[in-house]
Amino acid sequence: MTVIKTPGTPASKMDRTPAGTPQHGGHRAKEEKIVVTVRLRPLNKREQSAKDHISWQCLDDQTIVYKPGPLERIAQPAMFTFDKVFGPESLTESVYEEGVKNVALSALMGINATIFAYGQTSSGKTYTMRGITEKAVNDIYMHILNTPEREFRIKISGLEIYNENVRDLLNSESGRNLKLLDDPEKGTMVEKLVEESVSDDQHLRKLISVCEAQRQVGETALNDTSSRSHQIIRLTIESTLRESAECVRSYVASLNFVDLAGSERASQTNADGARLREGCHINLSLMTLTTVIRKLSVGKRSGHIPYRDSKLTRILQHSLGGNARTAIICTLSPASSHVEQTRNTLLFATRAKEVTNSAQVNMVVSEKQLVKHLQKEVARLEAELRTPDPSNEKDLKIRQMEMEIEELRRQRDLAKTEVDDLRRKLQEDQRLKISELSSPVAKKCLSFSAVLSPMEGKELGRGDRNRNTMGRQTMRQSSTAPFTLMHEIRKLEHLQEQLGDEANRALEILQKEVACHRLGNQDAAETIAKLQAEIREIRSVKPAPKKVEVSGGLAVNKSVSANLKDEITRLHSQGSTIADLEEQLENVQKSIDKLVMSLPTNNDHQEADTDSPLKTKSQAKKKKLLPLASSNAANRQNFLRSPCSPLSATKDVVDNDIENQAPQYDDVVSTETQLTEKETPTKSEDGGDISSKEGTPYRRSSSVNMRKMQKMFQNAAEENVRSIKAYVTELKERVAKLQYQKQLLVCQVACFQI
Ligand SMILES: Nc1ncnc2c1ncn2[C@@H]1O[C@H](COP(=O)(O)OP(=O)(O)OP(=O)(O)O)[C@@H](O)[C@H]1O
């Protein structure tokens, strides 16, 4: 522990360390300017009798101004400002209260304090310091009385520096010049300086009186009781809390009351001899003090501070820019005869107020108290060990706190476990969702789920909902789940639902497209089937002769029509083009024309004249029938009912024709009867005798009704040709329609494949 000796404090008893106090609240030093006040005394009798006038005036409680005479010029600073300025009427009590009391009482809180008076001789230093000391002593003991919780110990020492010799004012026998010792830790010490313990305030006042009595005083021209030395009365104040008397820490500080000798001019004091020598020492030490103050006032730029140039500055070193609070009272004489001395004092005060001290609280540790305290503490612990008290309040509190700590730990672990479980479940759920969304199988299942049967879809959906519900229930069961985790879970569930909805919508669209393709395919298939049925129906008709034989007679025409139908069917089935059909039809037309033209030729010799109009008419009709480009609207029914149609009841037609032509038909019948006896009847291909009935009149056209029969045959042939043309046109349209449907089907299949 650092041991610092306060100047004037017995080092053997004190260990000084920084400590906190109510004022400073900590161990750090507090920088503070020296408090400088000015006290202007009234003119004394000597000055009054000398007709001096007052040259200084206090403008306010902080400003003093020079008041020149009528003929005086102001060549130097005339106004000074300080912390406090006291006029001639001010009381010492006010100077104490308003100027130095706070500084003086800092010693009660462990802070060193120094109050000293500076001024020319007879300016009122002693007068003021006596009053200040008295007031301080009163306040100190007043504070002690008002602070019963602390135990105060006050000691006093007194010295004077006379002609640069240090004398103990409380021990006149100690010698005329005490040595100053420099301790690196304790500072400057006065060897063998007596330090008296003070019992009470009276005792202190008495000791102070002793010191004053021992001080060197001499009569000068300016002061009958001029102080010829610098006097330092030091009070050491130590305080300890009474409750913790065993506590080893205490506040300790020194309070210095310094009454300087006044600067003087030999010419004014009329000093000689011893007084002159005293005056020289006084002025010399004061000059050093002024130098120290001047240097301190400029701060760190000042360099070396000549504390050691005088015993005064050596002893007051801590109070001048060190660990102390310092207040300087500069006393002034208002007399015009001391203007220069007063001005010098004011300049000194002006510099002094720029000096900064670094005061700190001093805490002391008494080794004796420390040993005593440790011994008691050891004894107490030993007693506790010997007799442990289960009902000890501290032990109970400790046990309760341990139980609370254990419970808090348990709750913490439980909460941590729940959080870990929840985090693990969340991660598993996220992995499951990610795998469901990213897995191709899952995608396929998701796609197929839309085309599943309603029951399967319901089952699957119910399973998903159950799983989600279970997941949510699991989440809800964890009531301690953090809000953020629950929020993430809800987001994932919402995302999953969105993806499911989108997949279902896509599947519905695909299903609709497939249905459309199926319908298209069905229409196409129906169309194909219809066409195939029609083709089969056409094919189911009795096959005609393979070769188209154009010969004379009705049977030949019927055969030609059947052949044409088969040929068209065959050509269609074989993929023949419409051009082929048209070509075939044109060939048939030509054959018919040839047949028609051949008939009149056979009877030209019999009816040359009468045949002429018919021939012209027949040729005109032939010219009309030859072009196949004419669009005939006759449908297939007309073709089937035509006389040469394979599907018509040929016999009925013939009969009807015969019935309708009853008068001419009688001739024919008679003629047929005649012919039957001469020629062998020709059987039809199917074994019937139709050919014999129908063919006989044409082959044997020598009868008188040959013209009528020729016309009827021609009409039938023309009707057949028109029917064939209509059928061919219809076939063309059907083939075109079939091709169009085929192309449409091909396009639809291609789109579906894409
Ligand atoms: N403020 C004051 N009011 C009335 N009288 C005062 C005042 N100050 C000083 N005096 C008187 O002036 C005289 C000189 O005072 P004092 O001895 O205190 O001066 P000093 O500065 O101590 O002189 P020195 O330096 O010579 O010792 C004394 O008689 C004192 O009573």
Quickly name the level 1 CATH class of the largest domain: Alpha Beta
Return the average pLDDT rounded to an integer.
Answer: 71
Briefly note the structural class of the backbone. alpha+beta
Number of strands: 20
Strand proportion, as a percent range, falls in 5-15%
The radius of gyration computed from the alpha-carbon positions, rounded to a whole number of angstroms, is: 75 Å
What is the CATH architecture term of the largest domain?
3-Layer(aba) Sandwich
CATH superfamily of the largest domain: Kinesin motor domain
The largest pleated sheet is described as: 11 strands, mixed
Distance between the termini: 98 Å
Spans of at least 5 consecutive residues whose pLDDT stays below 50 are: 1-26, 441-481, 542-558, 599-704
What is the count of helical runs? 21
Label the overall shape. elongated
- Ligand kinds: adenosine-5'-triphosphate
CATH topology of the largest domain: Kinesin
Task: Count up the domains.
Answer: 3
Bin the helical content.
55-70%
Provide key terms for this protein.
single chain; 754 residues; alpha+beta; Kinesin; 3 domains; eleven-stranded mixed sheet; three-stranded antiparallel sheet; 14% strand; elongated; disordered N terminus; binds adenosine-5'-triphosphate
Summarize the structure.
By secondary structure, the chain is of the alpha+beta class.
What does this 3D model show about the protein?
55% of the residues lie in helices and 14% in strands. With 754 residues, it is α+β, with helices and mostly antiparallel strands. The protein folds into 3 domains: 16-367, Kinesin motor domain (Kinesin); 395-512, no CATH class; 541-753, no CATH class. The strands form 5 sheets. Strands 1, 3, 7, 8, 9, 10, 13, 16, 17, 18 and 20 form an 11-stranded mixed beta sheet that branches. It has a 3-stranded antiparallel beta sheet with strand order 4-5-6, with helices on one face. It has a two-stranded antiparallel sheet with strand order 2-19. It is elongated. It starts with 15 loop residues before the first strand and ends with a helix. Mean pLDDT is 71; it is low at 1-26, 441-481, 542-558 and 599-704. It binds adenosine-5'-triphosphate. Residues 41-42, 44, 119, 121-127, 223, 225-227, 261-262, 331 line the site of adenosine-5'-triphosphate.
